[in-house]
Amino acid sequence: MDRIAIIGGARLEGEIPISGAKNSAIKLMAASLLTDEPLRLTNMPRLADTRFLGRLLQRLGAEVVDQDGADGPETVLTTREIVSGFAPYDLVRQMRASFNVLGPLLARTGQAKVSLPGGCSIGARPVDLHLKALEALGARIDLHEGYVYAQAPRGLKGGEISFPFVSVGATEHTLLAAVLAEGETVIGNAACEPEITDLADCLNRMGAKVSGAGTPTIRVTGVSRLTGATHPVLPDRIETGTYALAAAMAGGEVRLTGTRADLITALIEKMREAGVDVAEHADGMTIRRGPERLKAVEITTDPYPGFATDLQAQFMALMTLADGESVIRETIFENRFMHVPELARLGADISVQGGEARVRGVAGLNGAQVMATDLRASVSLVIAGLAAKGETIVNRVYHLDRGFERLEEKLGACGAQVRRLRGEPVEEAAD
Ligand code: UD1
Questions:
Q1: Whose CA is closest to atom 20 on ligand 1?
Q2: Dist CA 319 CA 249 (whole Å)
Q3: For the purposes of burial, counting CB atoms within 10 Å of the CB of 34, is it exposed (0-12), middle (13-18) or buried (19 or more)?
Q4: Residue 170: which H helix or E strand, with range?
Q5: DSSP codes, 282-323
Q6: Axis crossing angle, helix 237-250 with helix 312-319, rounded to the nearest 10
Q7: Distance between CA atoms of residues 220 and 213, nearest Å
Q8: Do 311 and 101 meet the contact criterion of CB atoms below 8 Å apart?
Q9: With contact defined as beta carbons under 8 Å apart, do 301 and 238 qualify?
C-alpha cells in the first residue's frame, strides 16, 4: 500500500494545471451506455475511479479507449451492444457511482440487475431516491439479496419527480434514464451542481432534449435514440479548491490554470474572509498568502452554490492554524469528521459535537504518521502536512489516487516536498 511523505515548511510558488472533474467524468462515462455510437470525452482525468468504471463498462459491452488527443487525455467509449445488464456486488461496492449504470441499462435495454452499493465510510448513503425516481419513470423495481432487479419491458415513460431533499446522484441518475423515456419528465428540487449541467450539456450534444439543468427544475423531453458526441469534461472544482487551500496553508503564490473561479465562489469568499488573496482570471485564479496569520472563519456545508462538503476537510486543515476559533458545520453527510482525530495527531485542537466541529487555531502543527480514511479526508492531511514541522506520513493513499491525479507531481512542481513511498498495490475504493 503506497504512502505519501511530506516535509512541511516549504512555501509554494508556481502553477498547477487542474484536471477534468472526477465526479463529472464518471457520470459522463455511464452516459456512453445510452448510445451505440462513440462518445469521446476530452479533458479526462486519469484516476483509479475512472479506470475502475471503465472496467465495469467493458463488462457491460463497452469498448473503452484511452488516448492522447490534441488537447490532452481523452477517452472514447463505444457500446455497440449491451452484452450484459449485470453489475455485481464486488464492482459496485468498490465504487458507489458504479450504481449509476442502472438507469442507462434500463433505458437502453429495458432491464438490469445491479448490486446495491451498501454503506461507505462517510455514512449510510442510501439510494432510495434513485429507485423512487426510476419507479416514477415506469420501472418495476424488486430488491433481492442485495440486488436491484429493474424492468421496463415496454420502455420507460416520462414522469414527474420531486425530490424531498437535494441529491446529486439521484438527479444525475434520473437524467440518465429520462433522456430515452417516452414523453416529458420534470425533475423538481433537482441538484444544481455544475456536474449536473455538464451531464445535461453532454446528453444534449448526444441529441437529448434537456432544459433547466443548473436550476431546481429540470425538464427532459425523451427521444428515441441518442448519437455519439465529443464533450470536454468540466474542470474539477474540488481539485481546484483543494490546491487553492494547499497554497493558502503553505503560503506563497500559486496560479491554478484550466479551471474556473465561478465553480468555487463560496470557498473563495471564505478564503478572502480568512485573509487569503485570491485573484480571478479567465482560465483560473492566483492564490497568494503572505506570512501573516489567517483569521478563523465559520463555514456550513450546503448543496451548490453553497460551501461544498467535499472541501470541508481541507478547509478544516487550513483553520487548524488560524487565529481564533472556527466553527465548521457539516449538513450533507452524517459521518464526515473522520479526519478530526488524524488532524489532532498533528497537534490540531478540534472538538466535535454532532454535525459541528470547533477548531481552535494553534501556533503550529508537528509531523506524524496519519491514516487516510476517505478521499477528501486524506487530502486534508496532505494540506496539514505542508505546514507541519518535520515529516508527515499519510498511510492508505489509495483513497487519494481515486480522486487526485499526480498529486505529488503537481505539488512538487511548486516546491512542496512531497514524495510517494511505494508499497503493495491495492484494489480497493470506498465511495
Ligand atoms: C455526490 C458526490 C460526492 C459529494 C456529494 C454531495 C459523486 C460521485 N459524488 O455524492 O463527492 O460529496 O455528491 O455534494 O458525484 N441520499 C439519500 N438517498 C438517496 C441519495 C442520497 O438519503 O437516494 C442522501 C445521502 O446519504 C446524503 C445526501 O442525500 O446524505 C446527499 O447525497 P448526494 O447528493 O446524493 O451525494 P452523492 O451523489 O452520493
A1: 127
A2: 9
A3: buried
A4: helix 168-178
A5: TTEEEEEE-SSPPBP--EEB-STTSB-GGGHHHHHHHHTTSB
A6: 10
A7: 10
A8: no
A9: no
C-alpha to C-alpha distance for 251 and 276, rounded to whole angstroms = 9
Which ligand 1 atom lies nearest to the CA of residue 26? 8
Q: Whose CA is nearest to atom 26 of ligand 1?
A: 125
Distance 296 CA to ligand 1 centre (A): 28
β-partners of residue 328 are 299, 357
Q: Which residues line ligand 1 (CB under 6 A)?
A: 23, 26, 97, 123, 125-130, 167-170, 309-310, 332-333
Assess contact for 377 and 238: CB atoms under 8 A: no
pTM of the model: 0.96
- 202 is an active site residue: no
Q: Please work out, in degrees rounded to the nearest 5, the angle formed at the alpha carbon of residue 58 by the alpha carbons of 193 and 172.
A: 15
CA 254 from centroid of its chain's CA atoms: 23
CB atoms under 10 Å from CB of 417, counted, come to: 16
pLDDT (tens place) for every residue of the chain, 431 residues total = 889 999 999 999 999 999 999 999 999 999 999 999 999 999 999 998 999 999 999 999 999 999 999 889 999 999 999 999 999 998 888 888 899 999 999 999 999 999 998 655 555 678 999 999 999 999 999 999 889 999 998 999 999 999 999 999 999 999 999 999 999 999 999 999 999 999 999 999 999 999 999 999 999 999 999 999 999 999 999 999 999 999 999 999 999 999 999 999 999 999 999 999 999 999 999 999 989 999 999 999 999 999 999 999 999 999 999 999 999 999 998 888 999 999 999 999 999 999 999 999 999 999 999 998 888 888 999 999 999 999 999 998 888 888 899 999 999 999 999 999 988 665 544 45
User: Residue holding cell 515548511?
Assistant: 9
* b/e sequence 9-30, b meaning 16+ C-beta within 10 Å: ebbbebebbbbbbbbbbbbbbb
Q: Residues near 87 by Cβ (< 8 Å), separated by ≥ 6?
A: 56, 59, 60, 98, 99, 101, 102, 105, 112, 113, 114, 115
Active-site option among 120, 192, 202, 414: 120
Residue 68 burial by Cβ neighbours in a 10 Å radius (0-12, 13-18, 19+)? exposed
